[in-house]
Amino acid sequence: MISFAECSARERLALVVDAATFHEWLPPTERVVSPHLEQLGVPSAFDDGVAIGRATLEGHTVFVAAQEGEFMGGGVGEVHGAKLVGLLRRALRDRPAAVLLLAESGGVRLHEANAGLIAVSEVMRALLDVRAAGIPVVMLIGGANGCFGGMGIVARCADRVVMSDMGRLAMSGPEVIEASQGVEEFDSRDRALVWRTTGGKHRWLSGDCDVLVKDDVAAFRAAAIDALDASRPVSMETLEREHALLATRLRLLPDALDSDEAVALWGLLGVADAARVPDLDVDALRALRTV
Fold this sequence. Notes:
Helix content is 41%, strand content 13%. By secondary structure, the protein is an alpha/beta fold.
C-alpha cells in the first residue's frame, strides 16, 4: 500500500493513471511562473504549484491536474488558476472520458488575493461548463493540506468527490476559523477535533463525499475508474437534492450544537453509536452512512 497523503503531486498522478501515460502541459521546463510573487520577494515555482495534462485511465483518455501542497500549501494564484481553467476549457473541445482533479490546497494564495479569487471563480465556471457537457469531473482529496477555501467550493461543484479518511474538506480551514473567531470557537491544534469536523469520515457520513477510501493510491485509482461514468449534469433535480440535504442539516443544527459538535450530528443523522466513528476503519465505517 502506498500512502496517497505522503506522495507528491506528480507521484500521485503517475500512480493513479495508467503507467507512463501522463503527458504534462506547461511543465516546469516552460517556466510559467506567477508574475506577482517575485515582486513581493517570494520564491516562485516553475509550475506554479500545479501539474496539468493528459493521460489514460484503464485505457480511457482523461485530463488530469494535481496540486502540489508543498508549494505554498497548494494555494491558488493567477497562473495556477489559469492552468486549471485552460485544462477544463480544453476538455470541452477534446471531450475526454473524464477530468480528474487531485486537490490539495489551503485555498486562495493570500499573496495574490484578488487574482486568486478571480481565478477560483473562473475555475468554477469552467468546471460547471464541463459538467453541463456531460463530461464527469472527479475530485480526489487525500493530501496532507486538505482542500479548503476556494478549492473547497470547487470540490463541491464536481460530479463526484472521493476522499480518504486522512483527507479534509471545508470552506474555511481550522487556522482561519481560529484567527477570526478565537480559539474558544475552534482550536486548530486539536487534531482530533479538526478531523471530526472536516475529515473524510465526517464528510462521508454527512453526504458531502461520494466515495470514502483508505489512504492508498490504489484505492484512489479504483475509485477514479469507477467514476468514469459518473456524469451528473447540473439540473433542477440535482439542485433540489442538494437543497434537501442542506435543509436537513439546518433542521438538525440546533440540537447538534447542544452537544459534542460532529459526534452529535452523526447521531442525529442516524449513525448508531456515533462516538465510535473516529476509531473505526474505512471498511467498518461504510456501513454506517444513512444519507
